[in-house]
Amino acid sequence: MRAEEICTHYGEDPSRFHGAVNVPLFQTSLFVDCEGNESGREGRYAYTRVSNPTTEIVEKKVAALEQGEAARCFSSGMGAISAAMMHYLKRDSHVVAVASIYAPARRFLWEYMARFGVTVTFVRGTDLDEIEAAICDRTELIYLESPSTYLFLVQDLEKIAEIAKKHQVATVIDNTYATPIFQKPLTKGIDMVVHSASKYLGGHSDIVGGVVIGRKEDVTQVAKDERELFGAVMSPFDSWLMLRGIRTLPVRMRQHMENAMEMASYFQALPIIKEVIYPYWNTHPQYELAKRQMTGASGLMSVVFDLPGDQIYKILRELEFFSRGPSWGGYESLISAVGAGLDRDSETMKKGLVRLHIGLEGADLLKEDFDRAVKHVLG
Ligand SMILES: *Cc1c(COP(=O)(O)O)cnc(C)c1O
Fold it and tell me: Residue 179: helix, strand or coil by DSSP?
């Protein structure tokens, strides 16, 4: 099934809801016993922490987009990520994780799970031998994020899934960057996909949410244990907004990519920019791999400035259409000077790195904005 069909019609049945063309918002905590919803009956609704008709339709669509058997929505990306990790971990487990993953996911594994004896080996993720060498007897999980946060390092999903199967280790990937429009990790042998729906799936910077997608058996267990017990369930209203976001996901992703490619080309030619970091840009060290396992790249990229930090901050403050802020995935352009204040590179960051989200304002407007800001500061 094509993504366009899934995002528009799949999983919906207006005859269930008086012919309503849009999925109604079931803003209710409780579902009582009545004709058609008798207790004990299969498919019956009881309580929104367990299931809700609005949320279920979103879950069906996301599962189909990822070509997974089942999905469950959470109240945030971190709710989904921590639930997926807890599903595979027990006391004293060991995890192999990519170093440049989303920072709170890293902190959850490294700091929080340490109280249950969980240990982590962080790897760059670009070297298969390094990953295999990190696996030990206690390893239960390989945690990936490809392309990774800020540096957009790409992991070879098929090869890593093979290594994991050989050692009977589970694999989970954060697919927030690419979305299922551009990357379907389950089809490459990865066991479970997690998303922050606060980014592209929502797409309008108006919800905080998350999703877990995978085999029915795993996802049902996550719903029954981690989601029901920790309680980080998506609210019906957020599900309804997420559904609205998903309707235009394929169109938005194509446009984000088109704008981002144009901006990458613009930055490449700008003398104050040392490096453009974008998986679909031909200077990316894993450009070939990115092209092979993804069908596109999103609106998120980094550029490395060849300027002192204070000059970088000055330019960013002059921008009119790039708001300064940490999130991304909405309609709007954003900029985050995460590496501007550093005096050297680290494992997860480069000196002078600025992350940009290329929104839907149109590349011409954004280029003019940058030209104006650079001219104002540097003359
Ligand atoms: C934002 C983000 C998350 C966390 O999502 P929340 O919805 O804010 O909890 C996880 N992974 C990546 C890659 C993100 O960008």
Answer: helix
